[in-house]
Amino acid sequence: MKVELFKPKNKALQEYIECFYLLTHPKDTTPTSYVSFPNTFSMVSILINVENIVTDNEIYTKSSFQHPFHAILYDTFRKPVKVTYEGEIKEITIYFKPLGLNTFLEKDLNFYTKNPFIPFYDFEKKMTSILHLEEKEVLFDEMEKYWISKFCGFQHPFLPQVINHITDKINTPISKIAEELNISHKTLLKHFRKYCSKTPSEFRKIVRFRNALNEKIHHKGAKNLTEISHAFKYFDQAHLNNDFKELTGLSPRDLLNNLNSTDSDELHWIFS
Fold first, then answer.
1. pTM surpassing 0.85?
2. Which end of the chain offers a freer environment for a tag, N or C, measured as fewer CB atoms within 10 Å?
3. Which domain holds residue 195?
4. Distance between CA atoms of residues 27 and 241, nearest Å
């Protein structure tokens, strides 16, 4: 299995899309599995000629010409998910930044978590044609052009400020953030679920986990787990251990000992 990552060239897209990646799995190889973990991005995976079997904690994707098109929005999982590929697979996945996908959609993000992800009338036809392209540079260029054409803008009166508050002052109570922004706690929760498909508390837990994980990955040996727990505002190391266990199924040490990175060092999975 090969994973190739591409960063958007267009400056407008860079504000809303973190990256694209192209995953290919050869026909005559044994099935490949990896475990992925919750993050704050909204991920859209697009595949052709596959069958997807999806459960709460596992996605099994196998080659099948009886199912010509699949597009899946991964935005609601809170636990580790095992992904397996069998047979010839070609997949492109888009990582949208928090609130980013809303910039291109006519309805709120939460609507698409409850329905098949076919957001535009020409989506299936255009994505299928793009995935049939052989030249990777051309494929990614066409993908950019398509999403630029769907830009409709998204303005929200307070959610960007909420996300900034959570990210920058991670232990501030959600009720306190609502008070500072002069909105009710109930209104904040309603809008956050509607446009982020998570609660603010879930979002905060994932932000803290990802920050701590990235620190340990990119600065190996620089800090021990106790220092990491203090640096990223965990109450103590037990708090860090519990969050890691909940989000990955593993202790921090077991996770770091088994974690693999793609060639780009942007995606961190456990292969099995």
1. yes
2. C
3. 159-262
4. 40
Q: How far is residue 99 from each of residues 36, 40, 75, 193, measured CA to CA in Å?
A: 21, 10, 11, 11
Angle at 119 between CA 161 and CA 36, to 5 degrees: 65
Look up residue 236 and give its amino acid.
D
Kindly state whether residues 124 and 163 are assigned to the same domain: no
Q: What is the 3-state secondary structure (H, E, C) of 58-92?
A: EEEEEECCCCCEEEEEECCCCCCEEEEEECCEEEE
By C-alpha distance, which of 209, 251, 242, 201 is closest to 228?
A: 209
Residue 55 class from Cβ within 10 Å (0-12 exposed, 13-18 middle, 19+ buried)? Answer: exposed
Question: Are 24 and 68 within one domain?
Answer: yes
Q: Are residues 118 and 97 in the same domain?
A: yes
Angstrom distances, CA of residue 15 to CA of 145, 163, 252? 15, 15, 31
pLDDT digits (tens, 9 = 90+) for 161-184: 999 999 988 889 999 999 999 999
